[in-house]
Each structure stands twice: as C-alpha cells, then as structure tokens.
Amino acid sequence: MARMKQSKNAKELNSFMQKKKGIYSWDRMMPIILATIAGISVLTTIGIVVILITESAGFFQAVSITEFLFGTQWTPLFADPKFGVLPLIMGTFMITLVASIVALPIGFGSAIYLSEYAPRKVRNFIKPILEILAGIPTIVYGFFALTFITPIIKMVIPQTDLFNALSAGIVVGIMIIPMISSLSEDAMNAVPSSLRNAAYAMGSTKLEVALKVVVPASFSGIIASFVLGLSRAIGETMIVTLAAGALPNMDFDFLKSIQTMTAYIVTTSQGDTAYGSVEYRTIYAVGITLFVITLIMNILAGYISRKFREEYE
Amino acid sequence: MSIVQIKDLDLYYGDFHALRNVSMNINEKSITAFIGPSGCGKSTLLRTLNRMNDMIDSVKISGAVSINDTNIYNPTVNVELLRKEIGMVFQQPNPFPKSIFENVAYGPKIHGIRNKKQLDEIVETSLRGAALWDEVKDDLKKSAYGLSGGQQQRLCIARALAINPKILLMDEPTSALDPISTLKIEELIQELKGDYTIIIVTHNMQQAARVSDQTAFFLNGEVIEFSDTSKLFSNPNEKKTEDYITGRFG
Questions:
Q1: Does the CB of B51 have a partner CB in chain A at under 8 Å?
Q2: Could you tell me if A4 lies within 8 Å of chain B, comparing CB atoms?
Q3: Which of A133, A188, A223, B50 is the residue whose CA sits 20 to 30 A from A161?
Q4: Number of structural domains in chain A
Q5: Using one digit for the tens of pLDDT, what is the confidence trace for B11-39?
Q6: What CATH number is attached to the domain comprising A241?
C-alpha cells in the first residue's frame, strides 16, 4: 500500500517536472519575455538616433555642415536666416559653467561632510531632504530663478537683464547639487571602513583620511556623479527656457539674455514652423548636436574614471 | 623597563562593561600576547592603547593608560601624534588601493616628509624590515591588490613601520592567512622584537606560546592571569587559565 502511494507520488512529480521543463513552461519563456522588455529600451534608443539622423540629414542638404558648425549667428526664423549653431552652444556652455561652479564644490563638499564628518543622526536627516530636492519639478526651479534669484542679482547689479544666463545657471547648479552629493556620498560610503581605520591608526587627521584615502578610493564614482550632473545641466530645458531668455549670442556676458540648445528646441517646436521646412529641421540638427556633446562627455568620463581608478576590491 | 602602564582601566560600550579594572605593565622591546575567548576584551584593550576606541560614540573610559610616562587620555594629548608612535596591524590585510610604494609612503607623507629621496629610503627600509623587499622591489609601482594575502599583511606591517613607531599593535594579524604566510609573519615578529615593543592579540594559543615573552589571559573583560609565557602555558596560577589553555572551553 505504502509502496503504491510512493509510486503515485513519483508519477505526479514526474509529470510536474515535465510540465516545468516543457517547451511552453515559464522557465523557458521567462528569458524571452525579459529579453523583450530589455530590448524595448535598446530599440527606443536606436529609434531616437535614427530619427535624429534622418531628419537632420534633410537639414544638412539645405545648409552646409561648415556653416552650421562654425557660423556665429543663429537666426533661422529671420527673413535672411543664418544657421550658425555656435551661439546656442555658447549659451549651453555658459549655463553649464555657472552650474558647475555652483554645484561641484557644494555637492562634493557636502558629500564629504555627510560621509566622513556627519554623525549618523544628522546624515539620516539630511540625506532624505537632498533626495526631496532632487524630486522638485524643473519648472518650479525655473520660476524660482525668475522670481527669486534674478531680483537678487538685479539688486546687486542693476543693469542685469530680466532674463539672464547667471540666474538660470545658478539655479541649474542648485538643481544638480543633490544628484552630485548623493551619488558621490554613495561612492564614498562604499569605501571599506578598514581603509579608514588603517589611515587613522597611522595618525591621519579626519581631513587626511577623507582627501587622501576615501576620495581617491571612490574617485571613479565621484567623477561619474559629476558627469551625470553636468549632463543634466547641459540637457536642462525648463529652467533655461524660463529664466535665461531667447537671444542666441556670442557675447559671453552672463548678465544678458542668451539661448541654449534645449531652449531653442522648446521655443521653436511650440512655434508655427511648417513641418518639413528647413526651420523645422533645425530642431533635429540642434538635437543631434546636443546628443553628440553628451555622448562625448560620457565617453570622456568613462576614460577619466578608468584612468584614475583606485580599486579596493 | 615598562613602556606601557595600564592602571585601573574600566571601559564601557554603552551599558556593556567590556574591560574590568585592568592593570598591567608592558615591557619595552618585548612581545606581549593577549589571549582569551571571543568577546573577552583583548582587542578592546589593544585599541585603547592607540585610542582607536575614540571613534565609537558610546565608549566610556576610566582609569589611566600611560605610554612613556604620559597619560594618553589626558585631554591635551594630540591623538594624531600619539598614533604616530604606535603602529597597528589589523586582522584582515587592509592595504590602500594604491601602489606598493604609495602604501608605505602614505604615513611618512602625512607626517610631513616630502623629499623624494628620503621617501625612497624609508620605503626600502620599511619593506626590508617587513621581509617583503626582495619580493616586490621591481614592482613598487604596481597595485598592492596584486599581492597575495600574506604579502599584503607584510605590506601593512611595512606601512606601520614606515612612521617609525615605538610600539606595534597587532590584532590577530594571521587569522586570515594560510599556515605558510602565518609562519613568515611569526618569524618577522621575532625579528622586529629587537626594535619595537610588540603587543599581539591572538586566538591561536600555539601562536602566543611560540612568539611571545609574556602572555595575558582575558576572560569577560578581566585579566585573569598575566605572566611569562612559559610559566602561563606550563604552570598557570589560575584554574580558569588552565581550563582555557587545555581546551576545556573557549
């Protein structure tokens, strides 16, 4: 009797295993399903690149690449249009410059404070606040620039334009502080405490431990956070559209209106340019320029962090 | 000549009484071993000697620890300078993620030595002192992480020697190493005795018996017995010591 029961169990187990291993079993389907899901993001990226290339190809049939890359005037909507992208690149560069002057020291400094100096309680209080700061919609930052920072700048320097690069750049910087500080802090926190102990035991001060042991050991993570932050500054749209103006120029004057690549794309895509016209295609030409710049930044960052890496594993 | 004098030392982690009324004198240029079961306070005592326990928030200490006739818990003592006098080697080899050269040069550099030639000299002397020079002299620029575990631990000893300490604290320095590497470290400890006062915490009683001149046996935060190693292992005064070294508990 017992034996029969056993063989019945064995049979059930067998058929269960067969189901489990059959052609249409979950075990076989799962990799396919997951690969499809993962493939979606890859396909999206490819799609974006294809659209950028095909649409801007139309643009470059009408305008020479030399004129686009080296022209110093950007007036595509004027009666006598000029298609030199440099003023827009200059605008983006100015915003990124101001933003990095604001965000890199503050983000890096606060990461060192949080990781090496702050008592646990303080750290547990500040980190969530930083993360909330990272979740504020950029349009809010844009109005913050326009209605709070700009008036302060105008109080100090009265001849400042209402829309100016400085105010927008500062606020873009404020926006990326949490990203830089939070990611850098994660990298520093991942450095094993045995390394800190070794340094302390040799008579290092806190600052020496932070700067000579922890920062070198987490250097690649810190650089990665800088690059991510700067890429966001380059791609930031709402703040610059609201607060930096719409006047592409090469003056390199932070108190005047400028226009960035992203702001140009926004304002033009909202306007009444005809689909398929050269003016319309400028959007894609500027878009692919932006894409190439961020791509170069990422490659550069990968190179820098590999070169200076001090691995601890 | 005693270099370390510990008197009536009590230490608490929060409410936990980790060291109870510890008093002992440690002789200069000798090897002292701390033995005892896990959690008995031997590592804690080691870490009070270079004030590494300061980094734990809940620590409360009373009593006196004097090194070279200075009470190291006096508020005027500069902890960084104190630690320069006391090298420490940890349980797990913990070289910095830097080159072999930079690992050894780290200590001298933070204590103000910039001269390249002088640094070269210190690095060579320290690596020779740690019996590692011949194995790494052609690879000084390579990462310390390419070394084997035993080599890494000797590198850590070299790094500690480079700041020219008087005392060397070793917290179970061989517990993560294979027998051959352990043997090398033990031989090295014997060689270093001529120049340094060495205090070694070990789980391994044979190791204590092999390398040390004096041994302290700890139990539940108390020093049960502290005497010459040969006496403690052959003819202990205390019943508890005898039970421990004969393997009846621990």
A1: no
A2: no
A3: A133
A4: 1
A5: 999 999 999 999 999 999 999 999 999 88
A6: 1.10.3720.10
- Over 90: is that where the pLDDT of B117 sits? yes
Residue A205 lies inside a defined structural domain of this protein: yes
Task: For residue A253, give its domain range.
Answer: 86-261
Query: Which residues, in sequence order, are CB contacts of B216 under 8 Å at separation 6+?
Result: B24, B32, B33, B34, B35, B42, B223, B225, B226
Measure the CA–CA gap between A215 and A208, rounded to whole angstroms.
10
Element (H, E) at B8: strand B2-13
Percentage of residues of chain B with pLDDT beyond 70: 100
- Distance from the A270 Cα atom to the nearest Cα atom in chain B, whole angstroms: 53
Would you call A312 and B81 a contact, using CB atoms and an 8 Å cutoff? no
- ipTM for the whole complex: 0.93
Q: Does a structural domain hold residue A146? A: yes
Q: Is A200 on the interface with B (CB under 8 A)?
A: yes
Q: What is residue B7's predicted lDDT score, i.e. its pLDDT? A: 94
Q: Any idea which residue has 């709070």 for tokens?
A: A148
Task: Give yes or no for A208 touching B (CB within 8 A).
Answer: yes
- Count other C-beta atoms under 10 Å from residue B141's C-beta: 9
Please name the helix (run of DSSP H) or strand (run of DSSP E) that holds residue B6, with its range, or none: strand B2-13
Cα→Cα distances B209→A94, B180, B212, B230, Å: 70, 18, 6, 7
**pLDDT digit string, tens, across residues B181-191:** 999 999 999 99
- Do the domain assignments include residue A170? yes
A202 touches chain B (CB under 8 A): yes
Whether A203 sits inside 8 A of B159 (CB atoms) is no
Strands B222-228, B70-71: pairing is unpaired
Q: Which residue of A has its CA nearest to B156?
A: A198
Interface A–B counts its CB contacts (< 8 A) at: 72
SS3 call for A276: coil
pLDDT in tens, B156-173: 999 999 999 999 999 999
Q: How confident is the model at residue B249 (pLDDT cuts 50, 70, 90)?
A: confident
Q: Is residue A113 part of a domain?
A: yes
Contact B57 A216 (CB under 8 A): no
Residue A3: predicted pLDDT: 60
Cross-sheet strand order for the sheet of B59-67: B16-27, B2-13, B59-67, B70-71
